[in-house]
Amino acid sequence: MTHPPRAARTLAPAAVLSLVWFYEGLWCKVWPGRDDHRAIVADLPLLPDTLVTPLLVAIGLMEAAIGLWVLWGRRPYAAAALQTALIAAFNAGGLLLSPGNIDEPGRMLTANLAIIALAWMVAARQAEARR
User: Fold this and answer.
1) DSSP secondary structure of 88-129
2) b/e string for 15-41 if b means 16 or more Cβ within 10 A?
3) Residue 100, exposed/middle/buried by CB under 10 A (0-12, 13-18, 19+)?
4) Would the CA dihedral through 89, 14, 67, 129 be positive or negative?
5) Angle between helices 76-97 and 105-129 (to 10 degrees)
6) Type and span of the H or E element at 29
7) Beta-carbon contacts of residue 120 (< 8 Å; ≥ 6 apart)
8) What is the pTM for the complete model shown?
9) What tens digit of pLDDT does each residue of 56-115 get?
10) Given this model, what pLDDT does residue 6 score?
């Protein structure tokens, strides 16, 4: 059995992971935006209503930037650590501050664990490819 070239083994998972970040950032938060994401941010304590949209857009653009970082492949373990920390913080914040806006918490946590696992797999492949 032949294996795909090393570049394909590294780039394909990174591209998939990047698409997750682009979807979550650009589609779910920037344009057109999802109501559940907006509602979760709106539930943040002490956040004035006028700052919900700017904060949502800022988070979305940051998520898209993470997608670019994953594709770039530099400092892959730092990228994986940041992704893990952000996903954990976003999940904890949503579950603690806005549980009524998360339809299926178990599905969300399961999907996000898979994304974290993919992030670390991508980091390991990118680090190996740089050797």
Assistant:
1) HHHHHHHHHH-GGG-S-HHHHHHHHHHHHHHHHHHHHHHHHH
2) eebbebbbebbbebbbeebeeebbebb
3) exposed
4) positive
5) 170
6) none
7) 80, 84
8) 0.92
9) 999 999 999 999 999 999 999 999 999 999 999 999 999 999 999 999 999 999 999 999
10) 65
Name the residue with tokens 């057109």: 32
Cβ neighbourhood burial of 109 (10 Å; 0-12, 13-18, 19+) = middle
Task: Provide CB contacts within 8 A for 68, sequence distance 6+.
Answer: 18
CA–CA distance, 115 with 32 (Å, rounded to integer): 23
Token pair in block for residue 79: 């990228």
Instruction: Give, in order, the Cα–Cα distances in Å from 15 to each of 34, 35, 91, 95, 118.
Output: 23, 27, 23, 29, 11
Amino acid symbol at 48: P
Residues 6+ apart with CB under 8 A from 92: none
